[in-house]
Amino acid sequence: MSAPARDASPAPAPAPKVRARGFSVFHGDAPSLRAVTLDIAERRILGIIGPAGSGKTTFLRALNRLNDLLPDCRTEGELLLDGQDIYRPEFDPVSLRKRAGMVFALPVPLPMSIRDNVVYGPTLSGVRRRADLDRLVEESLRAAFLWDEVKDRLATSALRLSGGQQQRLCLARVLAMKPELILLDEPCSGLDPISTARIEEALTALKAQYTIVLVTNNTKQAARVADETAFFLMGELVECGPTAGLFTVPRDPRTADYVTGRFG
Amino acid sequence: MRHAGETWTKRLFLAIACSAIAGLALIAVFILKEGVPFLLRVGPAHFLASSDWQPQAGRFGIYPMIVASLWVTLGAMLIGAPLGIAGAVFLTQFVPPGVTRVVKPAIELLAGIPSVVYGFLGVMALAPLIRDRFGGPGLSVLAASIVLGAMILPTVISISVDAINAVPRSYLEGALALGATRWQSVHRVILKAARSGIVASVILAMGRAIGETMAVIMVAGNAVRVPGSPLDSVRTLTANIALEMGYATGLHRQALFATGVVLFVIIMILNSIATAAVRRRGGRA
Amino acid sequence: MRLPPRHAQRLAVAVLGAATALTLGILAFILASVFQKGLPHVTWRFLADEPRDMCRAGGIFPTIVGSLLLPLLAIAIALPLGAGTAVFLTEYTRETRLTRAIRFGADCLSGIPSILFGLFGFIFFVVFLGMGWSLLSGGLTLAIMILPTIIRTSEEAILSVPAAYREVSFSLGATRWETVRRVVLPNALPGIVTGVMLGIGRCIGETAAVIFTAGSSLRLPRSAFDSVRTMSVHFYILAREGLSAEMAYGTAAVLILSILIVNLAAYGLMHRFISRRAA
Prior knowledge:
A: alpha/beta; Rossmann fold; 4-stranded antiparallel sheet; 10 strands; about 25% strand; B: mainly alpha; globular
């Protein structure tokens, strides 16, 4: 599709932040993910959709090597972050996780105050001065659209927040790490529509700075929020492309069946 | 880079975790080190079968102490097991949960009372009672059995309660649905299902009873003789060790360690039976 | 003689209830006897004074000190070892032959009667290592004795920390040790402390293991190598010598009171632990 160069030159295609090349994950002998090859562009939102058991979460957890915590987990192929294979033996998973933060499906506030939750990660990295931490707390909570609601009670227990607020706190917690990648695993599955909208609002604002991968079992959410969407089925990547195109003119018939609700 | 630090922490914790095994090994080595040479020298058969205990004259037969320990433990079981099992059944089946919440700490308090206090009250209250009602010195197998029976109650009760609570509720509901009364369901269905756990609790309690020292020293009388009746004064294996350890030297001391070995073996046998009883039923305690 | 089921049930409940009442009656009897005959003698002088006149008069102060120092020393040794073992078993390894051996070792230790601990402590710490009858010998012996309890309660406490907390910590870039230190242990602390209190309670009531390792000196210890007498040892000596029933009952009262206090503290903590979890 060639077009003459225009004067208000559009931004050049962003370099892929993450590249998967024939990447597979095995739990024991059974493959959970088979030869996935895709690119994730920088500062975009990639939505990952697919039915249960399709490998979406496995792929997400491979991105910050959280799969390492499971016994008998083995990988093949390459998974590159900024051109470096994160599964190389010498690669330190701990430092990787500081660059790729994750928000889980059920909000898990740590049993501490709101402030302590947010500064948990940064203090691990050696940020000590109170002024720096306070600034970090405010920035992160603002970016997660939670600051106004909790700014007067930062010392109270995070367990007292509502579900939606807790999930935004988890997002703030991740943002405080100043990551490059934000990984979200069905973050709105337990939330009411208003909280869901707030989170989606936050993500849309955040993609200006971060690369975001959003696993969701709600195709409409992907349609609302994601720039690109990948469809996984039974451990394989079926199709990946700009969201609008995937939903209106999918290349693969299985994709068409899923997005029209013929199975799910 | 961080990896190296992690490996060292893991190794540190590994070393710490071996402390339990290390402690056990030390205990085994040092007790055996003192006791086994003695057994080899004097001969285990003679040691276990002879009734002649005169350390000064170099004669070491602990048969009376073995019999005493067995009698006292058996007596404790005859008293403590029925009471304990009855208590466990009552508390789990016939009492609202609010009562159990209050009674449970009471039982644990009973377990926390030092053995010397049990022994002391046995001397002050129980022995005179026995002496007046039944004759004899009062400090006797009977007194020791009663005191030990009381001391093992918490063990029997708490493990039996666990065993009974582990029986699936559907068993009880099934029996009741067939028209059985609560008591019928309990003794025909639940107790049968919990049997291995309850038996284990009794055997474990016996292991504790046979190892008990302080209370027994105070109420059993400590005469070295094979008991002929429950009113006789006896000396158990544990009492023998504790009474003479203070001044025993040389071969005499080694004999006491050898007694310890015998005691340990008996307890290990009892504990293994208890564990096997639980495992045989598929680990359903 | 077959009773109709209704009657049989009533009889059974009566018998079982009586048995339970008897069990509780024993506790009541013990507490009543000791407190009734002992509490009148428990005055400030009794607590602060030294024994006089061959222990027939005076107080039990040195033994209170002994009963305080010995369990504290035992815990100071057993807690790091026991909690460390629990951390290893839960956080740093899967079930292997080694972990089974460790559990087996702990189980065996918990089945050993205290007189054998006394024998071991004597031959190993007092004689072999030359520590003599001392706080140190007694503390080390008691530490090995309560180690299985600390391991068990610490493991339970650590396992009750939700796995999700660990996952979150890892996902924020923490190492395993940082996760243990900042998330697992602080949340397992109440349960661990409960185990510590149980261990202390056991040490306070212990006599056979103590008398052969810590001795029975009535002098206040000036170093860890000095012998001490605990309240339970003192009580035993008083009971055997038969010199003073008042002193004996008084000591017993203080002894049981201390154990009661420690048990109540443990219970209170356990309660707060459970209610906080539920929140």
